[in-house]
Give the backbone structure.
Amino acid sequence: MSTQAIGVFDSGIGGLTVVRELLHAVPQERLVYFGDTARVPYGSKSVETVLRYAKEDTELLLSHDVKMIVIACNTVSAIALNEVIEAAAGIPVIGMIEPCAKEAVMLSRGVIGIIGTEATIASGAYEAALAIEAKRQSKKITTYVAACPLFVPLAEEGWTDHGATELIAQEYLSGLRENGVDTLILGCTHYPVLANIIQRVMGASVTLINSGAVAARQVEAMLGKHSTTNTTEPKHTILVSDVPRKFQRVGERFLGRELPEARQVVFKEAWVVKREAIATSE
Ligand code: DGL
């Protein structure tokens, strides 16, 4: 029986929707959550930058002696899963994409939509995982994708039932609806907060898949009998790299309950001018 915590990280507070699912699936487990609120968003950044951030975030969690890492960010899961696995040096790592692809193929009648950040969609990671799963489950599937970058600020603004969000959702999702998507992967940890509007725009018959909920069930299955059996409520740790003005209010909306006190961590890095940049400026 282990008293070590499960480490969870995201680019910011979106990953709290995954924590919400973990608190439900493995309530006895202690969690250490890191939200990189100083460097969010990751979804519009280059692959090189996301790889570097993912490695640094993993190292921070490892310094808290975690027994498992959950990448509560679809962008990092899409781009940097292997780097996180490598940095984690043998402890189990759960990303958002594989569990979600498995569930989507299982539930779909054949047409799967994926929405996410620009980086997640550009990576093609979901299509690749879905193709592997379809083969494994001997099913034929077609996939359609849409990047929905404005959903992240709308979710953080709390416009979860706002006319502007509905209009933007119609703009982003109309192509998926017209193509007959029957199962839609919410491939960004911010999006569950907007699930009502997304469901309304897509139609009641479309199955929405919350990547965090699926991943939390995988954590539960992986821990199995090795799960910690605390009799008292575990004391969770929330770490952030900046404290945005709306942090408490937004965080509680994502988490669905009172947010434990957050502590700030500061990444001490030194600026280094890249060689290539010097060469081109000469
Ligand atoms: N939470 C991130 C994800 O799941 C989206 C926010 C960001 O762009 O960093 O991809």
